[in-house]
C-alpha cells in the first residue's frame, strides 16, 4: 500500500512539473506562431505599398491571413482551455469509466465506492447523463454517460470531453454483445493515446434463487480468464484494429456481485465479492499504477500537448500553406520571368546604346581633324572644342536615348504587372 501511495504522490509531483513544462512549451509555440503571423502581416503591408499592388493577390493573402488568425485563436483557446482544466486536478490520478449505455459503469462505480445504488440504471433507459466524479483508493474516478444510446449524441459529447483529463481509461464491455461500434467510438478517444484496460462485465442474473446459487457456487465457470477465452481473441482483435494496442489487458468482472457484496453480510458477502473478481481488478489496477503510473501521468500531458498541436494548430497551418502556395508560386514565376527579361534586356540595350553613342559622336570625330587644323594656334582651343561637343550633344538630344530605354522598360513592366 505504501508503494502505491508513494507512487501516487510522485505522480502528483510529476503532474505539476509536466504542467509547468507543457505550459512553457505552449507559450513558446504561441509566441513563435504569432511571430510568423506578424511576418505575414508585414509582407502584406509591404506588398500593398509596393508598385506591384495587385488587388487580387493582395486580397487572397489577406484572406488567408484573416482566416489563419481566426482559426489559430480558436485553436489556442481550446488548447488553453484543456490545460487550465488539467490544472484543477493536478494532484489526482484520474481513471475514467467509458462504455456503452447500460454496460454497468455506474454499477462498478457504486461497487467501488460502496454506493447505495441510486445511480445504477433501473429500466431500459440510459441513466448517467453527466460526468460524475468520485474518489476511490486515492484515485479520481469518473463515471461517464454511456455511448450508443438512442438520441444520446449529446451524452457522448459530454463523456468524450472528459478524455483530456484522463490518465487511464477503463473501457467496459459486456459479455452478451461486443459491438465493433463501441470500439470505433472509443477509438476517437484513443487519438490522445490514452492507456486502456478492458473490463468485460460478464452478465448473469442474480435474481433467480437457483440460478444465483449455481452461479455463486462456481464463479470461475463464468468470471475468469478461462471462461471468457471465447471473447478474448475478438477483444484483442478489435483493440488492435481500433486502438492500435497489440496485447490489451482484459479483466473479466461481475459488477452486480461486487455491488451486492457491499450490501450483504457474512458468507454471502464473501462469496459475492469473490465472484465479482473485483479483488483481481483492484490488485491489477494497483499494480498498473505502481509500475507505470508515473509514465502514464507524463504521457497524459505530453500526448495531450501533441494531440492538440496536431489537431488544433497544425491543420490551420496546413490550410494556410495550401492557400498561400499557389500565390507564392505565381509570384515566383513572375519574378523568374522578370529576371529573364532583365537578363536579356540589359545586354541588348547595351549594344543599342553603344550603337547610338557611336552614331552620335561620329560627326564630331569627322570634323575633329578639320577643327584641329583650323584652331591649333588659338589659345581658347580647349573651350571652343568643349562648346562644340556640348552643342552637339544638346542638339542631338542624347536624352532621347535615355528616354527611349526608359520607355521600353516601362512598357514591358506595365505589361508585366497587368
Ligand atoms: N441481467 C443482468 N443485469 C445486470 C448485470 N449487471 C448489471 N446489470 C444491470 O444492467 C444495468 C447497468 O446499469 P448501469 O450500471 O447504470 O449502467 P451504465 O453503464 O452506468 O449505464 P449509463 O449510465 O446509461 O451509461 C442495471 O440495470 C443493472 O441492474 C448482470 O450481470 N445481469
Ligand atoms: Mg451510468
Number of helices: 12
Residues in helices, as a percent range: 55-70%
Beta content comes to 5-15%
CATH topology of the largest domain: Rossmann fold
> At the fourth CATH level, what is the homologous superfamily of the largest domain?
P-loop containing nucleotide triphosphate hydrolases
- State the secondary-structure class: alpha/beta
Number of strands: 6
Mean pLDDT: 87
What's the helix-strand series? HHEHEEHEHEHHEHHHHH
Largest sheet: 6 strands, mixed
Global geometry:
rod-shaped
Write the CATH architecture name of the largest domain: 3-Layer(aba) Sandwich
Per CATH, the class of the largest domain reads Alpha Beta
Could you characterize what this model shows?
It is a single chain. This protein has a six-stranded mixed sheet, with helices on both faces. Helix 5 (180-190) links the parallel strand 4 and strand 5. It has helices spanning 2-49, 55-88, 105-112, 153-160, 180-190, 209-217, 229-243, 255-262, 266-276, 278-375, 381-395, 398-417; strands spanning 94-99, 132-136, 139-143, 168-174, 196-201, 249-253. The model has no long low-confidence stretch (mean pLDDT 87). The chain has three domains: 2-79 and 319-323, no CATH class; 92-276, P-loop containing nucleotide triphosphate hydrolases (Rossmann fold, 3-Layer(aba) Sandwich), CATH 3.40.50; 333-417, no CATH class. It has 418 residues and is α/β, with parallel strands linked by helices. The longest helix has 98 residues, at 278-375. Helix 2 (55-88) packs antiparallel against helix 10 (278-375). Bound molecules: guanosine-5'-triphosphate and magnesium ion. Magnesium ion binds next to helix 3. Guanosine-5'-triphosphate binds at residues 99, 101-107, 120-122, 126-128, 145-146, 203-205, 254-256.
